Hints:
The complex is a heterodimer of chains A (about 170) and B (about 900). Chain A is mainly beta. Chain A is built from 3 helices and 11 strands. Chain A has helices spanning about 75-80, 130-135, 150-155; strands spanning about 25-30, 30-35, 40-45, 60-65, 70-75, 90-100, 100-105, 110-115, 120, 135-140, 145-150. Chain A has a 6-stranded mixed beta sheet. In chain A, a hairpin with a 2-residue loop joins strand 6 and strand 7 (about 100-105). The longest helix of chain A is centred in the last third of the chain and has 5 residues, at about 150-155. Chain B has 6 domains: about 1-220, Up-down Bundle (Four Helix Bundle (Hemerythrin (Met), subunit A)), CATH 1.20.120; about 225-280, Helix Hairpins (Orthogonal Bundle), CATH 1.10.287.560; about 285-465, 2-Layer Sandwich (Heat Shock Protein 90), CATH 3.30.565; about 470-615, CATH 2.40.50.180; about 630-760, CATH 2.40.50.180; about 765-909, Response regulator (Rossmann fold, 3-Layer(aba) Sandwich). The interface of A and B includes residues 64, 70 and 167 of A.
Amino acid sequence: MTNGAPAQVPEILQGGRGKNSGQFSTFYVADLFFGIDVLCVQEVLRTQQMTSVPQAPRVIEGLINLRGQIVTAIDMRRRLGLPPRGGDLTPMNMVVRTEDGAVSLLVDEIGDVLDVDAATYERPPESLAPAAREIILGVYKLPDRLLLILDAERTVDLAVGVGAGIGRA
Amino acid sequence: MQDQEVIREFLVESYENLARLDQELVELEKRPKDAALLDSIFRTIHTIKGTCGFLAFSKLERITHQAESLLSQLRDGLRDLTPSLVSLILDTVDATRKVLTSIEATGEEGPEGFDALTERLRSAAQLTLEPDDSRAVENAVAPPAGPSPASPVVAKNEGKMASGDAEAGPPATAPEIVPSVPEPKASPVVVISEGSRSAEKSPASRSEDESAKSSAVADANIRVGVGLLDKLMDLVGELVLTRNQILQFNTEREDAALNATSQRLNLITSELQEGVMKTRMQPIGMVWNKLPRVVRDIAVALGKQVRLDMDGAETELDRTIIEAIKDPLVHLVRNSCDHGIEMPDIRVRAGKAPQGRLSLRAYHEGGQVNIEIADDGGGIDVLRVRQKALEKGLLRPEQVEKLSDRETLNLIFAPGFSTAQNVTNLSGRGVGMDVVKSHIEKIGGVVDLASKPGEGTTVKIKIPLTLAIIPGLVVTSGGERFVIPQVSLLELIRLEGDSSEKHIEQVHGTPVYRRRGSLLPIAYLNRVLGLNSTESHDAVNMVVLQAEDRQFGLVVDGINDTQEIVVKPLGKQLKGIPEYAGATIMGDGRVALILDVLGIGQRSGVMTESREATRPTSDQTGQSGNDQQQRLLLFRAGSFNRLAVPLSLVARLEEFPQSAIERASGGQVVQYRNRILPLVSLRDVLEPGACEPDQVADPVQVVVFNDGDRSVGVVVDQIVDVAEEVVTVRQKSNRQGLLGSAVVGKRVTDFVDLNYVINSSSENWSQRTVGSPIGRRILLVEASPFSRGLIRSGLDMAGYRVLEASSGDEAIRALEQQRVDMVIAALDLPADGSDGLLSTMRHRPEWSAIPILALADPALQTQMDSIRTAGFHDCQTKFDREAMLESLARLGAALTPSELVPAWAGKEH
């Protein structure tokens, strides 16, 4: 079975970072297809009433009330340095569990939960835009498209990547 | 009082412990080999003994000590448990209870000596040392240990014990009676100790009603798990929110029954909330109580004299917070005594009293608890801190130079840092201050340190009352709701009518309000938070707030009502924003932000001690906010040690190895991002003909400026810092390549004339801009030559041809003499220059089509719209280069191509 070269095991599957299930909750941001380890995802919500936070970094869309818990919502378009969402597109909340509590990622559309084949994993290309490079762990080459795996902890850590710097564009 | 409180706690705890002991001893008799049980009994007795020693109840201590040694033998397996031993221990428990009753009633241990009991315990413990006896004891049903050489009392007791057991039936059941019967006389087992009992008989009658009282103390208090209290607190928080929601529904509906019910719900919830809050609150004095001892010990050990003042011991804190600050507080106090306060002789020499003073202060402020630990010692030597940071390798020399005094002081909180000359056994090992800081930050607090050499050091800890429910005032601004903690609120002022704006006057551009004869500085919430202004002009709503002994008025769009709110912490992503203390959920289920009054005060500039000044890099909003505040890039070139350019003009900072520098068309270039970047050496520009330096820097430091598709790299010797400053002293420079000098970070700094520098690049920047569609003529009207220079350099780089004027009149003369495509006018020209210029231009047909861009002070950001409608084509903030250029491009695009100046560039070159 083995063909000599050991299959490259993705670092998320080694339990190095994040959890380790091999299953990903997927979503779309602009025309990109993303996945977050299903164990990191708490729930998915429709558009919520949002309270904006003046003076906050621009990637922060606002605060939502999640059953009595105040959750920060991060706009994934801005987080990834992508153009803003069209006016008629209402974002979905993908609430992820992080060390700092729940954080909501605002995405365009929610996809299915996918099982992926570890053999199709590859590290992200070096030439990836700086906004995305820091928070994308790797890429699964699905038959029809590429699934980009996000590191939930780093995504919500605005000190990583452009999160902090994008404040004043 | 405090002692009594301690004793009271001791009593409650001990009664509980004793009750448990009764049970456990009985259990133990059934399962004599249960090591865990034995351990628990041992620990209980040990605890009582320890506390007795601490509280100086010597009699009790003696008794429990003997019992403890007996138990330790049992625990160590030196002897086995016999019913007689159990009885003996139970007797001890009873005796202890008796003493406790006496303590509760009179505060004294009582006249009884319990000598017989002590003696019995002691000899019982000694018995084990004799192997024969231990064997005798081992055999529980054995007859009295006749040959015992030990004290006859013991022998007798043992004998009686055995016989007592025989009478009472199985030994296991006999002692069970003991705990359940408060008067031990009823138990047959107790007959054994008649000797001691009889001695105790005299106070027996007294102890009867006392024991009733004692149980009252025990019954009045129960121990509840903290987890349960936390859960209750959470639930109450939810209940409060739900209550608020119901109250809101109620106001929307006209239903008498609902109204009555919801009012009742309101009352009950408030009371419940208050009650649950109280269960978790403890005075900070609980922690402080142990500090006098700590201070005394250190003072004695070091030969210092220290007086400890405590103020605000009654300040209540949530118990979790009390728990968390206990250790940091002790450490800080130790530190102040050890490092802060000097030896008496040094103090006298410095003209201070030999006795040092350490004061602790706790108080509530703005929904936070502040704790200050201040000493009047020698203060912290900033130089030594810097030195130490270098020695310890915490920072590199160039980093140290950049630090402000305040930043330097905060190095003390860096891991592995200690400035003590001598490492004492008390502190100085470099662990601690960083732990203090991390502990306090863990509970969402902030530590700040201020020190004046020779006068002392003050450490201020601020702990937010997260999880707490506080009353707050709900206000609106820019369409958003905000909550202001009630504790910061002094009064509400509403200025009505046409004159409302007149009530707010200006002191050199700073809004103030005359409040009962004294001037109150005013801040506008809309401007502080950068919100759209929806303020109406017929009324001004002002909230008078207090933070840190200072008062200011905050103008808001609307004042709603007061509400009980549940303070919830903000996520990590929002922690660094000083304007907010937290968030809460309102009656309608939406989130509202809670304002941090101190942060708002500082951010708006009404409170001078600016927090931003200590954190130059954390400011995300750049120049907005303060008047003329700019971010400057500081660097060094040639003999100029401090040069600056506005950071907004800088595209990137780069390092290139010498080997990457190539020569092309007579100048130096590097390949940079697939393009050729011309390099200009700032040293050569500023000091042409100066000799080459001995060492050629490798890699070279390059500041890259770019616009559109053109870039130029300016080679400097070293990048020094980024500073955010209100530029103060201004002096124009005659030297080519420099705009002028100003004081930045307390040092004189030269501002580089970028236009000149870039034009001296062999790759002629300006020439390339000729063909650019934006090669337009701009008249820049700005009074300050310095600001003019800064703005101009931005325009030059974008390829505009700039004419300058310093006043409205000068601008009109310039318009008369030359062709101008666009005008940029600062709004703060002297004598209404900008308005005058505007109206003059509008009334001269040949000028009326020229677009005018107004440049407003950043503080006026919120009035931009009204400025735009006043006749200017557009308005931008001063020094916002990007926005200015964008605006110019927009205005320029509206001009017809024929208005472009033909071939002016040819004349120029």
